């Protein structure tokens, strides 16, 4: 079992994990080697315990750990499961943009986890910020099991009337979770105009009045026409990350190709409308004109290489 607690600067997850899961508990940081985990697994087996619990440091890249370590252990016959634990106060830090690392960890752990638990056991006392993150987790991972409380767990389902009532009495009452979709069809993007959004802080100007929690999209790059460009949010650096996506169909009509970006944001209605306009204008400014495809030189790409 892998346990992730975004924003847990105090390291309280070690004690919490010991309370809710029976087994050997190991604190995993960036310096923890695979050999150390293997030794802990052997110790657990010798002790007759069924579970090895890996508590991830709040600074650890959950996505990379999953790709490298969990894939490795699954190949060895293990059945790793992941749990996200939401500690009181962390939701507010994330939505008020006071802990970008916690925001990144929360999103990736929610996508990868099998279940999410809140430390707060009283569902009626969950803050609007916590409800917002729970709702986001539900959108990002429809298979994620959500529970209130670590031991006497109450199942959380959506839509929840408690989420609505909680939002009406909070100082965050004007803000809520929104989904924005920006779509442009029939014209590719000029890579050099996308490049600044891939640099650290590239989205900072868009986040003054709205907190972008997650973003994902596909873009059509004129200079890389064989495959989609897959965009995701790098919350730690407040910019987009770009990787090679699915290939385009050889005979696909170019007029049906689209650039689409979906954003999940925490903001007021007014801030959402402003962000939608800003992102739309940015995307429009990247679209190619009527010049022939060969006019954009490879030296102007400015994008990270694809495999």
Short summary of the structure?
The chain is of the alpha/beta class.
Structural write-up:
- The protein is an alpha/beta fold and 307 residues long.
- It folds into 2 domains: 2-167, Rossmann fold; 176-300, no CATH class.
- It has helices at 13-20, 34-46, 62-75, 90-95, 100-112, 128-140, 161-167, 191-194, 269-286; strands at residues 2-4, 24-28, 52-56, 82-86, 115-118, 145-148, 154-155, 176-185, 211-219, 227-234, 239-247, 258-267.
- The strands form 2 sheets. It has a 7-stranded mixed sheet with strand order 2-3-1-4-5-6-7, sandwiched between helices.
- α6 (128-140) packs across α7.
- This is CobW C-terminal domain-containing protein.
Keywords:
12 strands; alpha/beta; 24% strand; 307 residues; seven-stranded mixed β-sheet; Rossmann fold; 31% helix; 2 domains
What fraction of the residues are assigned to beta strands by DSSP?
A: 15-25%
What overall geometry do the principal axes of the alpha carbons give?
globular
* SS-based class: alpha/beta
Query: Any low-confidence stretches, pLDDT <50, length ≥5?
Result: 166-173
Question: Architecture of the largest domain in CATH?
Answer: 3-Layer(aba) Sandwich
Q: CATH class of the largest domain, anyone?
A: Alpha Beta
Treating each run of at least 4 consecutive H or I residues as one helix, how many helices? 9
Over all CA atoms, what is the radius of gyration? 22 Å
Tell me about the largest β-sheet. Answer: 7 strands, mixed
Mean pLDDT comes to: 88
Roughly how many Å apart are the termini? 32 Å
Widest β-sheet, arrangement of strands? 2-3-1-4-5-6-7
Number of strands: 12
CATH names the topology of the largest domain as Rossmann fold
Into how many domains do the coordinates divide? 2
- What's the SSE pattern? EHEHEHEHHEHEEHEHEEEEH
Helix percent reads 25-40%
């Amino acid at each position: 079992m892998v346990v992730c607690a975004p924003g847990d600067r105090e390291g309280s997850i070690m004690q919490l994990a010991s309370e809710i899961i029976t087994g050997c508990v190991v604190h995993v940081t960036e310096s923890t080697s695979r050999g150390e985990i293997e030794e802990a697994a052997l110790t657990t087996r010798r002790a007759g315990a069924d579970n090895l619990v890996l508590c991830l440091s709040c600074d650890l890249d959950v996505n990379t750990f999953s790709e490298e370590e969990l894939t490795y252990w699954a190949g060895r016959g293990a059945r790793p499961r992941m749990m996200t634990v939401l500690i009181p106060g962390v939701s507010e830090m994330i939505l008020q943009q006071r802990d970008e690392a916690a925001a990144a960890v929360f999103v990736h752990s929610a996508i990868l986890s099998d279940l999410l638990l809140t430390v707060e056991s009283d569902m009626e006392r969950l803050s609007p910020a916590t409800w917002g993150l729970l709702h986001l987790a539900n959108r990002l991972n429809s298979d994620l099991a959500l529970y209130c409380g670590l031991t006497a767990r109450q199942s959380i389902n959506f839509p929840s009337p408690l989420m609505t009532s909680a939002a009406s009495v909070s100082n965050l009452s004007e803000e809520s979770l929104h989904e924005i979709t920006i779509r442009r069809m029939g014209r590719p993007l000029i890579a050099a105009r996308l490049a600044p959004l891939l640099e650290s802080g590239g989205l900072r100007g868009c986040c003054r009045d709205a907190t972008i929690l997650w973003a994902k999209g596909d873009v059509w790059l004129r200079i890389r026409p064989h495959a989609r460009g897959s965009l995701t949010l790098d919350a730690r650096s407040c910019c987009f990350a770009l990787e090679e996506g699915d290939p385009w169909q050889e005979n696909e009509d170019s007029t049906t190709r689209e650039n689409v970006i979906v954003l999940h944001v925490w903001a007021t209605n007014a801030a959402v409308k402003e962000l939608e306009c800003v992102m739309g204008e940015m995307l429009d400014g990247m679209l190619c004109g009527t010049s022939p495809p060969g006019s954009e030189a490879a030296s102007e790409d400015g994008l990270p290489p694809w495999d």
